[in-house]
Every structure is written in structure tokens, then in C-alpha cells.
Design a protein that fits this description.
Length: about 350
């Protein structure tokens, strides 16, 4: 546990420092979009390009892991929407639009800004492959499905629900295709396949930008969370956001791990190490940028922001605990020994 906390404490501390800097004033709110743009368009793409170029294609696009994560993402969306509407569909409660955005934060972990650097720090470069696969699934499938569901709310007021849902899905797909992160991964994989290497000055720039991704991304998460919370003026009952945060932190990773074990028992070639990393990816807190989408689509941004903040604060304990269980080889008798062995080997390789 001490080895895990030695990694997770600094990571979550940087998130807290970003929140404090934005709240106390050294980081003006007007600077936060610039930080976010630097991470999204420069630092993270360079880091992912390096991983894409260094990992075999089979690790970047393992069909079994992609299928497991995709299935679990769809199940999480359906489960969260169903639970929300069943327990909170009353006057002053949560409608389909807000339930859909709650499902998005329940199924969409912060894999880009936090997951890649955190899991690579814990388990070495080999951990990047499953996390990158999860990023692609969430950007293309999960967000598209949830935005389509959110726009279907217009059916309640007699609007053209089908047209609005298709339009929202098209916008989500367009955003996924213009997001630089998947393209950075693809470009890295193509350059490796063609054995193309950037010239020395360009390679050095890519290395410097990639090395800055982790601290700046974590700091930016804290600042973005403060800005989102600072712009929320409505009060959200605890019962409207805490259950979704708990679904994100506990049900999502349990569903991924359980589905992986079932698929493996049925004969699917599910790699043990990849399943562990995919489970820990699902155990990450909710993606902080969903609050911006909620505001843009007229959803209850206060509820979404509180789900993200609650999952981020609680994830320090829950994520560290789940990682410790894997270190001890306790989750699942069928794979416990191999997971413990792979954890030990990955730690020794990364040191």
C-alpha cells in the first residue's frame, strides 16, 4: 500500500493544488481555458504520440479489451439512467436529459488527463495501451450515446426527438473526430509501423511537451473543478449526485472486472494485465470536461459538477484501495496469482 500511496498522493495533491491556486487567486480564472488548451492540444498529444510509437499495435487495440470496455460502458449508461429515473423522477427531481449526463459522468473516467500518467507511473509504459483504448471508446461511443439520450428529452415537450437525438450524436462524433488525442495515438502507431522517426529537434520538442503533460494536466483538473463549482448557483441534494459518484467509483470497475472474468471463462483471450489496467481505468474519477458539455446542452450543470467533484475527492481512497487489492492479488480467485505476479513484474520494470 505504501508504494501505491507514494504515487497516488502526489497525483491527487496536484489536483488539490490546482483547485487552491484557482480559489486563492494566483491562477486567475481567465487563465484556466489556456491551461486546458495547452494540455489538450500540445502536451497530452505529444505524450500519447510517444506511447503510440512505442507500444505494439496489439496492445493499443486489443479486441477483447475493447469489447469488454465498450459493453460495460453501454451497460453503465443504461444502469445509471434507469436507477436515476426510478429513484429521482418526481417534482424537483431529475429528468432524462440530466439522467443522461449523470450517466455520462458515471461511465466516462478521467482517463486522458489523469488515467494515462497515473497508471503508467504505477505499472510502467505497458499500462498505456488499455487506457488509450478506453479513451477512444469513451470519446466515440459513450459520449455519443449519452448526448443522443439527452436530446431525446425533447419528446416530452412534443419536439422532434429523433431529429434532435441524431443531430446530437452527429455533433458528438464530429467532436470525437476532431479531438487531437486519438489522432496523436494513431500518428504514433503509424510512424512506428513505417519506422519513421522525427528529426532530432522535433523529437526533443515532442519529448519536452510530453514530459510536461502529467503535472500540468493534474493541476488543470483542480482549476477546472473550481471554475465549474464557482459557476454553479443552484443547490443539488446529496441524493441526486452522491449515488452516481459511487456508481462511477465502485460499480463501473466491478462491472468491467466481472465482465472480463466471464469473458475469460467463456474462452475469450482476455489478458490478465490488460484487464487489471482496464478495471483501474474504470475506477478513476469522472472526466472533468463533462461539466462544460452539460452547460452547453442546458442540463443541470450543478448536479454534474457535484458528481465530478465527489468522485474526484473520493477516488483518492477508492482508487488506492482497488489498486492495493490488485497488488495483494485478492480480487477474483481465478486470476489473483497472475495479477499479483504481473503487478510485481511491472513495478520492477518501471523502476
Amino acid at each position: 500500500m505504501q508504494a501505491i500511496l507514494a504515487v497516488t498522493v502526489p497525483f491527487f495533491a496536484l489536483v488539490l493544488l490546482g483547485w487552491i491556486a484557482a480559489r486563492a487567486g494566483p491562477l486567475p480564472e481567465s487563465a484556466i481555458p489556456g491551461l486546458n488548451a495547452y494540455v489538450l492540444f500540445f502536451a497530452l498529444p505529444c505524450m500519447l504520440f510517444r506511447f503510440g510509437a512505442s507500444l505494439p499495435l496489439a496492445r493499443l487495440a486489443d479486441p477483447a479489451l475493447l469489447g469488454i470496455y465498450l459493453l460495460c460502458g453501454v451497460l453503465m449508461v443504461g444502469l445509471t439512467v434507469a436507477v436515476t429515473l426510478r429513484t429521482q423522477r418526481r417534482p424537483g427531481g431529475v429528468g432524462l436529459r440530466d439522467a443522461a449526463f449523470g450517466a455520462l459522468v458515471a461511465a466516462f473516467p478521467n482517463a486522458g488527463f489523469m488515467g494515462v500518467p497515473l497508471l503508467v507511473a504505477l505499472f510502467g509504459d505497458a499500462a498505456a495501451g488499455p487506457v488509450i483504448a478506453a479513451i477512444v471508446v469513451d470519446l466515440v461511443v459513450t459520449s455519443t450515446l449519452c448526448l443522443a439520450l439527452a436530446e431525446a428529452e425533447s419528446a416530452r415537450s412534443g419536439g422532434d426527438a429523433e431529429r434532435r437525438a441524431v443531430h446530437a450524436a452527429a455533433i458528438a462524433l464530429r467532436r470525437a473526430l476532431t479531438n487531437p488525442l486519438p489522432w496523436a495515438i494513431v500518428l504514433g502507431a503509424v510512424s512506428a509501423a513505417l519506422r519513421l522517426e522525427p528529426i532530432a529537434p522535433v523529437a526533443q520538442i515532442v519529448r519536452m511537451l510530453g514530459d510536461s503533460a502529467t503535472p500540468v494536466a493534474l493541476f488543470t483538473i483542480g482549476a477546472v473543478l473550481f471554475r465549474a463549482g464557482n459557476h454553479v448557483h443552484s443547490r443539488t441534494p446529496v441524493g441526486h449526485f452522491l449515488p452516481v459518484a459511487l456508481l462511477k467509483l465502485f460499480v463501473h470497475p466491478a462491472l468491467v472486472f466481472g465482465t472480463g472474468l466471464v469473458a475469460r471463462a467463456l474462452g475469450a483471450p482476455v489478458p490478465t494485465f490488460g484487464l487489471m489496467i482496464l478495471t483501474l481505468t474504470a475506477a478513476l474519477p469522472s472526466a472533468s470536461n463533462v461539466s462544460l458539455l452539460a452547460e452547453r446542452y442546458g442540463a443541470d450543470n450543478g448536479r454534474v459538477t457535484r458528481i465530478i467533484m465527489a468522485s474526484t475527492m473520493l477516488a483518492f481512497l477508492s482508487f488506492s484501495g482497488i489498486a492495493w487489492l490488485f497488488e495483494k492479488g485478492k480480487p477474483g480467485e481465478a486470476v489473483s496469482a497472475s495479477i499479483g505476479t504481473l503487478y510485481t513484474e511491472s513495478k520492477s520494470m518501471s523502476q
